[in-house]
Amino acid sequence: MKTFNYHSAKDVKEASKLSSSKSAFLAGGMTTLPSMKLGLASYNDLINLKNIKNLSGIKVSGKTIKIGSTTKHAEVSQSKEVKKAIPSLAALAEGIGDPQVRNRGTIGGSIANNDPAADYPSACIALNAVIHTNERKIEAEKFFKGMFETALKTGEIIEAVEFEIPKKSNYQKYPNPASRYAIVGVYVAECKSGVNVAVTGAKSCVYNDKNLSSALSKNFSSSAIDGIEISSSGMNSDIHASAEYRANMVKVFTKKAVEAC
Amino acid sequence: MASLVGSRVERKEDKKLLTGRGKYTADVTFAHQTYAYFVRSPHARAEIKKVDISKAEKSSGVVAVLTGKDIVNDKIGGLIAGWRIKSEDGSDMKVPAHPPLASETVNYVGDHVAVVIAESLDEARNAAELVKVDYKVLKAVVDTADAMKSDQIYKDIPKNLCFDWLLGDRAKVKEAFDKADKIIKIDLINNRVIPNAMEPRAANADYNPSTEEITLYTTSQNPHLARIIISAFNGVAPENKLRVIAPDVGGGFGSKIYPYAEEVVCSWAAKKIERPIKWVADRTESFLSDCHGRDHVTHAELAVKNDGTFLGFKNETIANIGAYASVFGTVTPTYLFGPCATGVYKMPAAYTNVKAVYTNTAPVDAYRGAGRPEATYTIETLVDKAARELGIDPAEIRMKNFPTQFPFQQTLVHSVDSGDYVAGLNKAIEAADYKGFEKRKRESEAKGKLRGIGLCTYFEACGIAPSPVVMMLGCGIGLWESAEVRFNPTGNVTVFTGSHSHGQGHDTTFAQIAADQLGVPIENIEISHGDTDKGPFGYGTYGSRSLTVGGTAIVKACDKIIAKGKRVAAKMLEASEDDIEFKNGEFVVAKSNKKKTIGEIAFACYLPGTYGEVKSPLPEGEEPGLKETSFFDPVNFSFPAGSHICEVEVNPDTGETAVVKYTAIDDFGTIINPLVVEGQVHGGLVQGIGQALYENCHYDQSGQLVTASYMDYTMPRADNFPDFNLGFTCTPATSNPLGTKGCGEAGAIAAPPAVMNAVMNAIGTEISMPATAEKVWKACKENKKTNSKAA
Asked: What is the pLDDT of residue B610?
């Protein structure tokens, strides 16, 4: 690991001020630290956000759940409020990594990293989330830009993620047998505006499958998508799963999620 | 005192190992410690044009940077192939030079080019990035099946062929095939796997300039072998000036039997810089540079009569041995493979032909089972195919061809001393509820799942001794084992063994044996291993040999202790030696109540003097002390055997395959500790099922290792398995007094064919290992298409 300056920011303002193109924010560090240790990433400054008050915590209002950005996966998975309002979100958090990861990793870190196989981005898309930063509010559909790429600008810090409470929802993941990241993860949610089918793992970035979403908006049953052909074009292909296999799994897991709703 | 042999004594070593009190090589730190980081080849095949270390040498904290040139200048010998194999035409195998640091060519990604030694690991690693190596990159040879047709890697090795070996009689096989009703053929790939011991390899070498002694701590299954190789072949130091210590070692599975370049380099360099050097592999280094396992491409044929009787068998295999011939790399696909190729069956004629090829991949060597899993996978999937094609039940066709008389002269080499394969399979059929399978299959089908059942009946040849036999077959050394039993004056005991425990539980099972033999409580017995300065020379642990060979050496040493004890007791009890009986730790004069405990005898042996009224308890001419050594060389290999039955459930929509039921009935001869044996079977099974369903080493066409971390290499995990249903039959081995046969490798040998036969039974198509979800899904989809066309 290369040497770096470590900062522990008191508040978001200070953290933002310290940041530059050669810095990284540190929350759970579940990706940042291994990348640095493996020599895949190096930074001049590492700015710890975990000591900033008010960035952590879960608040339920009538229609939404707002989760602070440094809230750990374990806190989401064990939260009575989350389990009651959006049980599928608690279940998703429970299925991330292993107990060590769940007790360090944070929701803000996960979505800021936007790993193509991460779980949380699919929840953001399916549950019409709004990402609150120190500068603005960003709709999930506009937040996830591409592989490891988001709408965040230098110095912009996620403060909270606000999820719509859906009528029903479910998340189904086919984990990579080696890493247990999602080879395909499908989050189905029936929201006020209609059904969303958010898919992670299959392509370079999480996406809302419009065909599946509109079919299920018309008829929320697993047979409603029987006739839909999932194209493998643009899907990831690697030693674990071909594009063709991923396309198949999107459909199978969408059905599974619908049936489990 | 009740016998401890056969009882479930809890593992003595676990308290230490499970509470973080074990001492591993990485835990050892010397004063003035330095740290090594190896510069490794990023290319699968290249010429080294120039190595520029000038910047690295000036980097912060750097103590030394050494390259292949220094190895040449100091005349440090290369790494060796320990087993000489002759080709069918009588020619010797062809072996390329394998220097501890390369100076001319590199031949796989991870090949060692230079070492940077610094005050800290970070400084060593940072400086390693500054070592500039100019490579001329050459086209890599990666594929096993194509290796003989590809570019020639080494100038003197045409067709990349190490040897073309034959065991058996081609003419007799042809005769048998001519008489057959049917020939069953199969083409198989035995997938390459990476051992993945929990503890990565490590070395810490310390040199004392005043005594010229090197002390090398290392992660070895076999410290004595490491010492003799590093001394006699690498020429780093004479044996008496090299102490090798393998302290607690976290698993080996064969990959730590022999020394690697890193141990040689650390020992040599420590002497050069006169400071201790520590190296610990990181996980990716382990993936790249530990010797891998398996990697065979096989075509096999079985000649049968219509009633299922086997007439003949042939096996044509290409074995990938990687870039260099490793220590056991040439014996694994030959004498550990060929003799077991015909399985547990009467087979009137057979041959095995193996072409061992070099490729630009990590060397391949012994991995749990070593050769026997590859042999068993071939014969057992072929037998299942024969059963399918002849319309005979897979259990029935096996029963029909089992030998029923023992000793059984096996077709190719071995005379199997004992066994009862019929009883084993019957017990497995019962335990697995084989007959209830159709009902369970219908239940699965009702849930939209496919269910399959698969059998494997196996035997293996373990012990890797007698020495005269292994030396006759090309081994450079004899593989007997030693033990020293040392009584302390106060009556407790230390047993030194030449074998090495790195998870096997020797501290417990060996103590059980000594406790029974000597009548000493198990708490008073310590087992010591892993230090060349402590016990006598030995040959380490692999090939399921420690108990049958090393355990017997302990029994023999105990016999000598008791013999001496009788002489001393006779004198002390004023009786004839012939009248002394030894029982439950006591020397008793026959038909009397005169006796001495073994503790009293031990104490007497250490107080031999005569002073005034005190008379020496020792007979005249008897040496004081109570310590005996035995070197045991068995008369035969040992032959564990068993019947495993696996059931899988396949989801045809996703291809996900779950092992839902697994029954293993094994015959390991006498069992010393069922708890330890069950643990060994569990470990073997998960590695065997891992190979069948999950694990796969993948090099791309340029020779880059794609599966070089746990992100991409699938290790099996606890949630991949059902509860295993284990059982045992017992026909004691006749080749050792304990009657034991060995158990460490059985699961890894039996599981791959049992699982794959079950998968193929479920989906009705032949597929290769690992049966990943996508492969199974594709096969199911193909079947659906074919079936709908047929309809």
From this structure: 66
* CATH (residue range A1-53): 3.30.43.10
Distance CA B354, CA B320 (A): 10
Instruction: Classify B317 as helix, strand or coil.
Output: strand
Contacts of A174 in chain B (CB under 8 A): 654, 656, 773
- Asked whether residue B492 falls in the same domain as residue B527, the answer is yes
Domain count, chain B: 3
B404-410: which pairs have CB atoms within 8 A and are 24 or more residues apart?
B406/B731, B410/B339, B410/B342
pLDDT of residue A29: 96
* The two structure tokens encoding residue B170: 């081609």
Residue B641: strand, helix, or coil: strand
Position B382 in a domain:
no
Q: Where are the domains of chain A?
A: 1-53, 168-260
Q: What pLDDT does residue B787 have?
A: 78
Residue A39: what pLDDT? 85
Burial letters B23-48, b for 16+ CB under 10 A, else e? ebbbebebeeebbbbbbbbebbbbeb
Buried b (16+ CB within 10 A) or exposed e, B600-636: bbbbbbeeeeeeeeeeebbeeeeeeebbbbbbbbbeb
pLDDT digit string, tens, across residues A29-87: 999 999 998 889 999 999 999 999 999 999 999 899 999 999 999 999 999 999 999 99
Q: Which pLDDT score is estimated for B35?
A: 98
Is the C-alpha dihedral spanning A103, A106, A107, A112 positive or negative? negative
Over residues B695-736, the pLDDT tens digits come to: 999 999 999 999 999 999 999 999 999 999 999 999 999 999
**Cα A195 from chain centroid (whole Å):** 18
Between A2 and B644, the more confident residue is B644
CB B394 within 8 A of CB B757: yes
pTM for this prediction = 0.96
Angle, CA A129 vertex, CA A124 and CA A132 arms, to 5°: 115
Q: How far is A48 from chain B (nearest CA, A)?
A: 23
- How close B715 gets to chain A, by Cα (Å)? 6
Q: Is B31 left (phi over 0), alpha (psi -120 to 50) or beta?
A: beta
Pairing of strands B213-218, B242-245: parallel
pLDDT for residue A1 is more than 90: no
B125, B653, B720: best to mutate for the A interface, most A CBs within 10 A = B653
- CB–CB of A177 and B698 under 8 A? no
What stretches in chain B show pLDDT beneath 70? 1, 608-614, 790-791
The domain of B745 spans 392-464+636-790
3-state secondary structure chain A: CCCCEEEECCCHHHHHHHCCCCEEEECCCCCHHHHHHCCCCCCCEEEECCCCCCCCCEEECCCEEEEECCCEHHHHHHCHHHHHHCHHHHHHHHCCCCHHHHCCCEHHHHHHHCCCCCCHHHHHHHCCCEEEECCCEEEHHHHEEECCEECCCCCCCEEEEEEECCCEEEEEEEECCCCCCEEEEEEEEEECCEEEEEEECCCCCCEECHHHHHHHHHCCCHHHHCCCCCCCCCCCCCCCCCHHHHHHHHHHHHHHHHHHC
What mean pLDDT comes out for the span A105-129? 98
* pLDDT computed for residue B614 by the predictor: 67
Q: What is the ipTM of this complex?
A: 0.94
**Chain B CA closest to residue A179:** B711
Where is the domain boundary, B245, B280, B315? B280
Q: Are residues B557 and B690 in the same domain?
A: no
The closest CB to that of B654, out of A174, A181, A242, belongs to: A174
* CB distance B513 to B652 below 8 Å: no
Q: Out of B706, B715, B777, whose CB is closest to A248?
A: B777
Alpha helices in B618-673 (DSSP H): none
